[in-house]
């Protein structure tokens, strides 16, 4: 299993990075440099890519090494993935050597055993880099291979530069990589690397879309501790955040912003749930709130431009200037999306993720706990989950009393309570009966979705009021759309009352 941290240099600063006193003080031996030429192979229909894998043959001097890598998992800047490597005599893959390493029942194992695979394999792109390698021993004793790559990826006549820092843990704790990277970041400007060299090459030969990524289902160990449950939940949230960064920075799908924001909200909700036992540093909490807020305007304006206004202006009179209002909303959404991308691409965000990785891996929250807290932290996650679900349900039932009649401020508080209960149910659902969880989540999801829709409508009304005030020529159209929104919200009173009644009758899945 390969475990590495990847950062992207913003400038040609490889020499300056290698010469840092911080590195020389940790170096086990002098740095050495190699030229690495890697040829990536795949079939015409990109069979390996479709299985989220890459196959390459790397030449260093007179030596050839073939490597098959899976996409693995990404948690912030940390990557964990399977890697199957073997020396071969030349620049052509040896499928037999790989077949010995992968079982027949796996998708990759099946592909490698296809009788005509060798005939279909073709070189599809090449990376050509100068790699400077240092072997480090960090102050905590961790053994790390640090590599700085400077070169290009080439497909046909198209090239893209490569400027990367990779730190692979050889022995020790991956969390220490993040702490060390934060120190490097003080001296050299870098940002999170969201793509591998293989990703860069495939992007040159295939029209790949940066798709939005939802959270993976959570499976907590039945006999696991409360602390282990938190770490699993936090990694799940961080993976959702990380896997949507590319879509926010380089894509145009509004869902990428939404899913990254959902990942951040899930993480902040998890921190809130476990706060009595696991205290997140206030500075880190503040930074997580910052990046969540930085994505908010893009999400709000994209919902307004792509959904709400299209519905509002169906069949509208021509004098409402619907096209002009829609165009103005889209332009504002595009500006907000650009600001969101800049925030995710910023040094500040890189520091947030590295700090989060270090905090989650270091488990410093254990210090300062009293005996009762330590017992709860190491106790069964199922007990903690049951207490949490009961507390959150009681809070929602209290805040939502008279749901269809309460004012917007109280309904907003009920919406937050519903969202937190829904996240908690998703986090801990695997610890309880699947059928009971499914029934409970169905009623809760319908209620929370309705409350979330109402919040979107309230936000849309505020945005339209602002737009109509700033652009007087659009005031009539914005007022028309606000009237449509008000009508929809009014018509939802009875459906909301029914959903609330059904939720109150639902039993906790315990």
UniProtKB/TrEMBL annotation:
Highest taxon, organism lineage: Bacteria
Annotated protein name in UniProt: CHAD domain-containing protein
Pfam families per the UniProt record, alphabetical: CHAD, CYTH
Coiled coil (UniProt feature): none
Residues annotated as domain CYTH: 1-208
Domain spans labelled CHAD: 223-510
An example molecular function term from Gene Ontology annotations: inorganic triphosphate phosphatase activity
InterPro entries: CHAD_dom, CHAD_dom_sf, CYTH-like_dom_sf, CYTH_domain, YgiF
